[in-house]
Amino acid sequence: MRHIKIAFWGLLVLLSILWLAAEPSVFQPESFMALRGAMVQYSGVIAMGVMSVAMVLALRPRWPERWFGGLDKMYRLHKWLGIAALVVSVVHWLWSQAPKWAVGWGWLERPVRGERPAVENPVEAFFMSLRGSAEGLGEWAFYAAVLLIALALIKYFPYRLFYKTHRLLAVAYLVLVFHAVVLTEFSYWTSPIGVVMALLLVAGTYAAAIVLLRRVGASRKVQGRIASLHYYPGVRALETEIEVPHGWPGHKPGQFAFATSDSSEGAHPYTIASDWNDKDRRITFVTKELGDHTSRLREKLHIGQDVKIEGPYGCFDFDNGQPRQIWVGGGIGIMPFIAGMKHIALERHAKPDRPSLAIDLFHATADYDEIAIAKLKADAEAANIRLHVLVDTRDGLLTGDRIRAEVPEWHAASIWFCGPTGLGEALRKDFAAHGLPVEERFHQELFAMR
């Protein structure tokens, strides 16, 4: 989370400082209308800046993933930038429109405009000729972007519709790029803020084109085929084993991938619940019935069906140098730890003399399936991991106190959590209050892609 905050606030501060360097007169405006003009420019710079970075992150780029701590963290930043773009765009629109309303209502006097000096620069003159079109198109693109961002933030909006409508933001963004290029103060383009904005707009335009061409993650996509299906009724979860004979580069335990079994539904992210064996070349997903799509998978999937897999993604790989670890999997959040146990078991078999990590795994669940829990226990035994299964109705809720009671040396451990956001935040705050340096040693998978 720390790097997300650094990137988010760092971008806002950088754009603000560069804009102030280009517009120092904002501190002593000649009139309200002069202030209004400056605020329209400032809010436009911020809105287009954050929207451009959000567009680039939509491509799921490889290069910043390790610094952010995984694609899940990059998507959280993408969401923050989208919310910032929504808020600042509304402010931009209000600065543009509200003074006009005030003049119409008689609250402000219409400013007296003298004759504008002739524009000698041919590029500036060309931009001036496009102002009317840029204002009109930009306003409609603003309305569309506000609607589409709002829909993306509504969790109850079906994913299959979100998948289709969210792509339209790329179209709105391209129109807003035209709006920004034409209406940005012309003198800015020869200043540092202009150079930075030009780079951001070019990068965002490239990203929007890739999105519209449906080429996001194209180099990471492989064709797979369903080899087996197994349903666990007690936990309402479906285990799907997929053959990926060609192209899959392998993955680390704890990583995830996007799977597409229905092109109309789009790609869904799932944690990979298996270790990688280059000879067998299979990966396993376990999906819990949590929504419309996952509830229908049992009826829609069949052995032999083709599935597109994109990945691997994520840095939830249990690698931080701490020999003592505590794993916490809430509900379906147990999946990365299953892959981790299978990987450790293979390592123990291949190198029996190698010292192993001391790990306690806590699995808190509201549902119970004897077969699933038996397989979980077998994986834990093979990996020499202490397993603690807590069923909510039988054992009560998992708390920091219960973990510390079971693991007295918790203060020397790193904690890896995957599961419900509320439980993760509660445990993080609890361990922080007890002195654990959570920024370095509490790792939480933010598995919410919207």
Q: What would you note in describing this structure?
A:
- The chain crosses the membrane at residues 38-59, 80-98, 140-157, 169-189, 195-213.
- It is a single chain.
- It contains 16 helices and eleven strands.
- It has 450 residues and is α/β, with parallel strands linked by helices.
- The chain has three domains: 1-111 and 119-213, Four Helix Bundle (Hemerythrin (Met), subunit A) (Up-down Bundle); 218-313, Beta Barrel (Elongation Factor Tu (Ef-tu), domain 3), CATH 2.40.30.10; 324-445, Nucleotide-binding domain of ferredoxin-NADP reductase (FNR) module (Rossmann fold, 3-Layer(aba) Sandwich).
- Helix 2 (32-57) packs antiparallel against helix 4.
User: Helical element count?
Assistant: 16
Identify the CATH architecture of the largest domain.
Answer: Up-down Bundle
> In CATH, what is the class of the largest domain?
Mainly Alpha
| Overall morphology | elongated
Provide the residue-averaged pLDDT: 91
How is the CATH topology of the largest domain named? Four Helix Bundle (Hemerythrin (Met), subunit A)
- Spatial strand order of the main sheet: 4-3-6-1-2-5
- Strand portion, in percent? 15-25%
- End-to-end distance, in Å? 16 Å
Radius of gyration: 26 Å
- Total strands: the figure is 11
